Amino acid sequence: MRLANKVAIITGAGAGIGEATAIRFAEEGAKVVLVDISAELAGAAAGGICERGGRAVSIAADISKNDQARAISEAAIKEFGSIHILVNNAADFTTKSVEQAEVADWERVLHVNVIGTALVSKYAIPHMKASGGSIVNMASMSSIIAQPNFATYNSSKGAILTMTKCMALDLAPFNIRVNAICPGCVLTSATEREWKRMGQTKEQWIGLNAPLHMLNRVGDPREIANVALFLGSDESSFMTAAHVMVDGGYTGR
Ligand SMILES: NC(=O)c1ccc[n+]([C@@H]2O[C@H](COP(=O)([O-])OP(=O)(O)OC[C@H]3O[C@@H](n4cnc5c(N)ncnc54)[C@H](O)[C@@H]3O)[C@@H](O)[C@H]2O)c1
């Protein structure tokens, strides 16, 4: 068990990469706190883990709201007594060019992706200082590349990489490591919304995106969860301020 006796908070754990990460962590012995803006999704995902013999609780919270962000760590401590791992995974997917975006678009995407990540971390860090720990921020290949009409989302994901390095520096004295993951295209509810928005079928979307990855396919959430597991665990004990590309070679060309 690679995460025996560890307590992990995972945001955006009601679906996609976050749910896969919560499942993977629980398989490796972690007690997991599944956070999602949707109580229904978080509850169902946590219920599934418990049915398979894991230890999981769910909490409905919008990470961009200060009080709700604080309540996440309070719930984790109340339930499990400590916090060792935090996976900041929840995200807003507003994708617009600078010309297209209104102030409200920028406010929404930056508030959830940048400020939300910061707030959840802010309230978890004091509890992690006791024993050291690992924070994993879900960035994206979009953190480091341009994509058409993605300025809002990509700017927020770029900020997450910089925040990761700043957090790593500030928290190193407390043996809290902070790293980021940069996934390529992964099949989730978010990408399903994307192909529907573009008026495409799933097959059309995969057909357009798979060849952009060297491996000529898109990713599965579990392939990202496996890297979150490595970064969350002590196996990555000499890693901090790093970002790991998990993009099937998309950005390697
Ligand atoms: N899917 C991809 O292709 C892809 C690629 C690169 C990076 N990512 C990143 O991976 C992470 C997960 O993406 P996904 O594709 O699994 O998304 P998803 O939409 O399938 O799941 C995200 C979950 O986060 C929840 N959520 C959204 N806003 C929230 C908020 N304010 N507070 C709490 N929960 C909230 C949603 O309800 C949802 O259950 C995101 O950070 C995303 O930017 C995804």
Rg from alpha-carbon coordinates: 17 Å
Into which percent range does the helicity of residues fall? 40-55%
CATH homologous superfamily grouping of the largest domain: NAD(P)-binding Rossmann-like Domain
Alpha-carbon distance between the two ends: 36 Å
CATH hierarchy: architecture of the largest domain: 3-Layer(aba) Sandwich
- Class from helix and strand fractions: alpha/beta
Strand count, sense and barrel status of the largest sheet are: 7 strands, parallel
List low-confidence stretches. Answer: none
The counted number of beta strands is: 7
Strand order of the largest sheet: 3-2-1-4-5-6-7
**Basic shape:** globular
What is the arithmetic mean of pLDDT?
Answer: 98
How many helices? The count is 8
CATH class of the largest domain: Alpha Beta
Spell the H/E element sequence. Answer: EHEHEHEHEHEHHHE
Strand content: 15-25%
The unique ligands bound to this protein are:
nicotinamide-adenine-dinucleotide
Keywords:
253 residues; Rossmann fold; seven-stranded parallel β-sheet; binds nicotinamide-adenine-dinucleotide
Report on the structure:
By secondary structure, this protein is of the alpha/beta class. The protein has 2 domains: 7-184 and 220-245, NAD(P)-binding Rossmann-like Domain (Rossmann fold, 3-Layer(aba) Sandwich), CATH 3.40.50; 185-218, no CATH class. It has helices at 16-27, 39-51, 66-80, 103-128, 151-171, 189-197, 202-209, 221-232; strands at 7-11, 31-36, 55-60, 85-88, 133-138, 176-183, 243-246. Strands 3-2-1-4-5-6-7 form a 7-stranded parallel β-sheet, sandwiched between helices. α4 links the parallel β4 (85-88) and β5. 49% of the residues are buried. The structure holds nicotinamide-adenine-dinucleotide (NAD). Nicotinamide-adenine-dinucleotide is lined by residues 11-12, 14-18, 35-38, 41, 62-64, 89-92, 112, 116, 138, 140, 183, 185-186, 188-191.
